[in-house]
Amino acid sequence: MTLLEYGLYSFVSLFVIVEPITIAPVLLAMTPNDSVASRLRMVRIACLTAAGVLLVFALTGNALLSFLGITISAFQAAGGILLLLIALQMLQAKAETPERITPSETAAGRVKDDIAISPLAIPLLAGPGAISTSILLYQQAETWPHKAVLCLSITLVAIVSYGILRLASQGAKWLSPLVLRLTTRLMGLLLAALAVQFIFNGVRAAELFSPK
Which pLDDT score is estimated for 161? Predict the structure, then answer.
């Protein structure tokens, strides 16, 4: 896989799982009484935190799995199953999925003075699905330039997410329910395909069905 192909693959994979467009209405629901300036500050901190978390797990995830005795094939399959569960919820146009954020976390966010770190950065932006994807993408990076491209992709996803959430913080009117549902379903379909590919890769790498 060339650097350009890997860059596009990693950016799209991460953007689809982070899905900042569907996080935007959640942000507005959790900050009904906050000023635009306060929302922008929380969005900025959340995106920086999410980027840092994903970068740390991408760079150290393989070492952590090795320490715990977990093979990358098992992690690929488990990560694929998790992503598939999230994708199935997205195909039903549900912005808040149980795998991503629980109803109690959403309710708690509405009464918190500052939601930047939790639940906006974690688990909404950098949730289990995004962390799993970062680790799997790093494992697929063949060379150091590929790993550098992955770090750049994570950074770009954070920047794009900041831009989208910044518009939402200012009360953008483009967040119509119809556009939101359509976008969620399209991204859910892409994520489902990515999840199935992760599962296939894990099963293939484990050689569970190889002829003896």
Answer: 95
